[in-house]
Amino acid sequence: MGKLKYALFTGCTAKQSTPEQMMSTMAVANKLDIELIELTEASCCGASHLQDYDDFLSLVLNARNIAYAEKHELTMVTICNTCQLNTAMTKHRLDNNAELKAKVNEKLAEVGLEYKGTSLVTHFLYAIIDDFGLDKIKEMVVKPLNKFNIAPFYGCHNIRPSELQNESHNKKENPYNPTSLDDLIIACGGVNVDYEEKNKCCGFHVELQAPHTAAVLAGTAIAGATDQNADMMVTPCPLCHLKLDTQTKHSSEAIGREVALPVLHMQQMIGLALGCTSEELGLKHHVTEVGFI
Amino acid sequence: MSTGTITTQKVNFKVFRFNADEDYLPYYEDYSMDVTSEEVVLDILNRIKWDHDGSFSYRRSCRHGICGACAIKVNGRSTLACKESMTTMIEYFGNDLTIEPLSTKRAVKDMIIDKGDFWEKHESVTPYLVTDIDEAPTCENLVLPHDAEKLNEADLCIQCGACHYACPAVEVNEDFFGPAAFAAAYRFESDVRDSDTDRLKAINEERQGVWDCVKCYECAEACPKDINPIEKITKLHQMTFTAGIAKSNVATRHAVGFLHSIKKHGLLDEGGLVLYSEGLGVVKHIPVALKMFKKGKIIMPWNMPKSDNLDEIQKLIKSSSTAKF
Q1: Any chain B CB within 8 A of the CB of A177?
Q2: Does the beta carbon of A113 lie under 8 angstroms from any beta carbon of chain B?
Q3: I want to staple A134 with a disulfide (CB 3.0 to 4.6 A). Which of A63, A187, B5, B228 is the partner?
Q4: Residue A288 domain-assigned (yes or no)
């Protein structure tokens, strides 16, 4: 296998509220000898909200991001579930509708770009599973996480709608019984925790407009993991991470029960197992204490 | 008709039982059966009733995926029992299957639930055509194919409730209309013959309307008719702007705020978005913001990163914008 190389779409949170996610992505890529070319030209994907206001503009901006990955002739790797969904959905719609693609390209031509449809778009989690291989990760583990019960939190926008999501990777994920993150936990030597909320919504997207709904969903998820004896949660999505890590006070109040668990980004979990330091993984940036890890 | 060989395997069913007239609490009954690859979930419900316990209750009627009566949950997945093959269920969840009503807290008897909230919400979106009828028309009232396509298959909904009871927002917020009601609202809003003015206003209200959708895509996954309710919810969002009825509130400013931020930075300015969306309400976020600031999670406005080639993004926003607020 030659060296793996991808175009990295960081999304916005990795550059702001989850610096630890950016740090751990680069640390893990380094350990796995994966080359990530950052798409510094990329804009925000609209985070599933811009399209509520202006669908066409959202398509144009996301197509522009993919066009930059195409320029590098690389698969685009995302590290945020919502970036993944918005980008993959744009790709799906343009690849299956020549008229729409032409309309979008008419706009992109104004800035000298073209969306061709030649780059795949996949989340880092599935790039690791499909292209790198969990067996290889397993062989590289130097600090197995066998002391820890780890609850996977998949995040909606990596598993639903499944028909679209399963276009983006070889690993066929069942949205009602996903296994990719469980498999990754096991590969890192950890004990995967099964609980009802692992494939449910964290509420992040309505945090401002429906704070109670958001807090109940996040609180219920943390409680579900806690009740199955989880020591920590792990997620591939920085938005789920923000909701579960930084909002425990609201979540606890909403469900009438004190809840808080350390929440790792998927990259941090891999990094820990591969022997990265807590500095490299940005563990100091967590709001809920992760000291014992 | 199956062309392959019919196979049989043993499946253990854990079945939700409850009789609101007699039981204080629900319980689960175990049934073990040989299941053939030809069977659908409804066959199992029938066999439980016919072979094991005649008191077992569930709704069924057409057996052709059109009446919407037999929706239940298998291992938490909303399922139209007459349409879903047992082979798929075993493939999805293995040989231990839990059979439950769509909503256990609304159970009346076994699989039968009180769907009152579903119908009430359905009614709230004026789920019928509102138009002036010419009682003595001189010709047919034609709808062109191009206009009919705008319904986007929303008219295929059979009101089975699969999406409604898969929606986490419905579970938490009892005012929220839910995906089926929104799909119905879209069906009539997109009908060229309709002239109702209240429907869009109803789905635009906070708490009950589309703005409280959590965007989890559970409804898209659950719908047995592939209606993709969240796609209709997105279109309803857009319609509120097109119709000019979107009010300036935290939800609409949150959607529009993305545009402002992308125009300025390419990336989303997280702090700026909260401020723009909340206005003075931003003060309630200060305690969490302080915690985040201490952990290096908040960037000062003057350090806000920008996308390279920002001029391209700005040019595209100028030329490609299609909405106004």
Answers
A1: yes
A2: yes
A3: A187
A4: no
Residue of A21, A43, A114, A201 for testing the chain B interface, max B β-carbons within 10 Å: A43
* Domains of chain B and CATH, by start: 8-113 (3.10.20.30), 116-131+143-242 (1.10.1060.10), 250-320 (no CATH)
For A74-99, the pLDDT digits (tens) are 999 999 999 999 999 999 999 999 99
Please, which residues 115-144 of chain A have a Cβ atom closer than 8 Å to chain B? none
Number of domains forming the structure of chain A = 2
Of B169, B172, B255, the CB nearest to A50: B255
- The answer to whether position A129 is within a domain reads no
- Let me know whether A147 and A192 are in one domain: yes
User: Rounded to an integer, what distance in angstroms lies between the CA atom of residue A205 and that of residue B34?
Assistant: 44
Instruction: Report CA-CA distances (Å) from B149 to A100, A108, A239, A287, B145.
Output: 16, 28, 36, 49, 6
> pLDDT tier at A39 (50, 70, 90 boundaries)?
very high
Tell me whether the omega of the peptide bond preceding residue A161 falls within 30 degrees of 0, making it cis. Answer: yes
Domain range for A17 is 5-123
B70-93 pLDDT per residue, tens: 999 999 999 999 999 999 999 999
Q: In Å, how far are A90, A133, B206 from A48, measured between CA atoms?
A: 11, 30, 18
pLDDT band at B135 (very low <50, low <70, confident <90, very high): confident
Decide if A57 and B206 are in contact by the 8 Å CB cutoff: no
Supply the ipTM of this predicted assembly.
0.96
Mutate to test the interface with B, among A9, A22, A54, A62 (most CBs of B within 10 A): A54
Residue in B215, B288, B305 nearest the CB of A247: B288
Residue A82 and residue A215 share a domain: no
B1 pLDDT higher than 50: no
Measured distance CA(B313)–CA(A104) in Å, rounded: 14
The set of residues, in sequence order, having a beta carbon less than 8 Å from that of B121 and lying 6+ positions away, is B164, B177, B178, B180, B181
Contact across the interface for B292 and A161, Cβ inside 8 Å: no
